[in-house]
Amino acid sequence: MHIHPNMKMSDLVQSDFELLAVLQRLKIPFGFKDKTIQTVCKEQGIDLHFFLNLVKWFHERDFFPGETLMNHPVKWLVKYLRSTHSCYVDYYIPRIENEIVQMESFDHSAGHNMQLMLKFFREYITEFSSHIQLEEEKIFPYILRLEENLAKEAPDQDFWEKIQGYTIKDFLDEHSDIEEKLVDLRNILLKYLAPPSDNCIFTNVLVEIFRLGNDLNDHTILEENVLIPQVLKLEEEFKKKFPG
Ligand SMILES: [Fe+2]
Ligand SMILES: [Fe+2]
């Protein structure tokens, strides 16, 4: 499918339903009628090229527009990533947790295994939450201030001091892999646990864990291959513009 600005937004979504997630994270309301991509983006205040680059990547997969995405203001990507965090925290994670709880109550023979699964998943939630919290409370605010300050005639004194001893590289080195534990959980469920009598919910949990894992993978690619390199460039520009 060739995605272009004059294509109807509804045709885009119908040809690849997974793209609904991108629209939702950009907070584009559904109900497009016959409006084109260009019109919807304009009405929602979303840069057309930023939108096209993102959906093309999600749709085509064989081409990663890293360089191109880096040419947009970093605050747009931060907004997108934040919105993705909310999806995980408010929807995906609690839903999977509830389903494991349900499985635990369904079948007593599998109950013990499900208790272990639940324990494992809750440990994962703790790890996941601190990962998200670090990004939301420290990393993203730093990035937004960097971009804001770079545009100023003179940077805020406190920010100038902060950046003297800090670089986003420190964060990248510690950016933990939040997909790995999920893969472990998936493998245990798939390879070693007998499904409880309600096989439907068991299969559904597996599908949802797969989905979340893939989604997190994309999220990490955007953070490590677009966001961080872009911030490194901004830091360099900042240091050139405001030398110590
Ligand atoms: Fe993140
Ligand atoms: Fe992350």
UniProtKB/TrEMBL annotation:
Cited Gene3D superfamilies: nmb1532 protein domain like
GO molecular function, one term: metal ion binding
Hemerythrin-like domain span: 110-230
Subcellular location: Cytoplasm
Keywords: Cytoplasm, Iron, Metal-binding
Protein name: Hemerythrin-like domain-containing protein
Lineage of source species: Bacteria, Pseudomonadati, Bacteroidota, Bacteroidia, Marinilabiliales
GO cellular component, one term: cytoplasm
Source organism, top-level taxon: Bacteria
Signal peptide: none
